[in-house]
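Recall that a protein's primary structure is simply its ordered list of amino acids. Everything else, from secondary elements to tertiary packing, is in principle encoded there. The following example makes that idea concrete.
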Amino acid sequence: MKKITILALLGLQAFVAMGQTQSDSLKYQRSILDSLFIEEFESQESHQKPKVLHAEPLYIDLIRDLGARKGEKEWNVGFGMQDKRSFDEFHALVEYEWAPLDRLGLEVELPVSLYSFRQGSVSEKIPENKLESLKLASQYTFLVSEKNNLSMALGYIHQFELDGWKKLNSQNVFTGNIYNPFLVAAKRLGSNYHTLIYTGPRIHKEFGQKPELTYEINWNFHYMVSGTRNFIGMEINQEIHQGKSIATLRPQMRLGLAENLMIGIVSAIPIQQPDYGLGSFIRIIYEPGFRAMH
């Protein structure tokens, strides 16, 4: 009986040891895969500047990758829906971003908003369908620290606001401007965990009206799957206006469909916003010329 017990214990110990060995082996393989992928992404030619891999938020995205390199370019198409209780807002966007110089990103975007009535809603309270604005933006990465996996950038977004579609034939096509300087700071923790903060004032000035100031703070936390650009994470969009703070939680995920094609899926959970319900957003990301070596 003692011999059987001893043999059973030895067998259990060997099984546990084998499982532990397999687990350690998988962790080691993932670590190697991560290291190779990050090295591939950050590798540079002699004339290029260093670049650190960071996860980019999907709803309020960056103008271009932090540490962008000359020649990089990207098309984005986005579709979303927001429940506003008495009506639904559908929004879409088309944007093109590119890097004419190392670390400098430029962007042109056309955002569109469409609204649908609900039974019992008052038509006067529902906004007019419109091309929201002509949006132009720039971003310069002034700090790239490979040692600390840290990048920082300054940027500026200018929006020329447009009137509703019914009034586009009139002489006053533009209704105002939005001025939005911002700061971005991103740090990767190890190989998989990414943090990023995107913050700055947004000044809305309609013609003939006083300017309105809103301060934006966008917090981001992501986990990137080993050896890929796929991730899951949380984007928190916070606005401070006239001493009041509101926020929207945006859980999200990004999946690679091909080497140069990705899709981002985002949900919207408003906090302290009684006139807003749940929302959703999808972003399709196409990078012409991008090729992975692995």
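The first strand starts at residue 73 and ends at 83. Residues 51-286 form a domain with the Porin fold (CATH 2.40.160.40).
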